[in-house]
Amino acid sequence: VLRWRSYGESDKIVTFLTRDFGKLTGIGKGAKNSRKRFPNSLEILARVQVQFRQRQEASLAFLESCELLGPRAAPMDPERLAYGAYLTELAEQMTVEWSPALSTYELLDEALRSLEEGPATAALLRAYELKLLECAGFATPLDHCCECGTTLANPDTPEIFFAPSAGSFCCMGCGHRREGLQHDGLQAISAELVARLRTLRQIPLQRGCENSLGPQRDTAAQITGQLLALHLIRPLQSTRTIEQLTRSRS
Ligand SMILES: [Zn+2]
Fold this sequence. Notes:
- This protein is α+β, with helices and mostly antiparallel strands.
- Helix content is 39%, strand content 20%.
- It has a five-stranded mixed sheet. A three-stranded antiparallel sheet has the order 7-6-8.
- Bound molecules: zinc ion.
């Protein structure tokens, strides 16, 4: 369940990410009160098996019943809930109604399970963001310069450039040339950080969770945030909660 809202006295309009149909929104008649057809199953982050009918030319599916598959454990702590809300909100924005998105579905499923079982880490969010962009067809090359194609993992050049407006990385030579042309807002970043991001995108999500980003954590968040911003339809709501939690913790 990606999100839901009340409709009238007793109905819910719920958006799911489904294995077979991509994103899907349906109306659950009496869902607020029916413990039989919808037993605690239409809450955000719930993993469910949903039975529905699609009425011809109706944009909303008709939800018949919904069974909760997980999580069944005790409610998550505020931090993991906030992270989960962020994961689902991103998946919601990166998918299209009735357009199958199996890789995104599997990624979100894996990420939510990681969150249920393990700690909320910044590395999990970064890995998820990079993989999600890849699933949506927006993967940025992280191994070679976007202009001349030279490898970015060169021990002789500890710094490279990031172009936030294009969401691309380039080598020092091309970066300086672009700066000479007064190109907008290039940001020098360490090549090692880009190598870490590349690893996070490649390795299984679960292993990514254990990967510490160290002192470059904030820069990593800023870069992936800028990569995402190029493709988001509207500003994210859930980032504010994560920022507040991070601030209160430090
Ligand atoms: Zn170059």
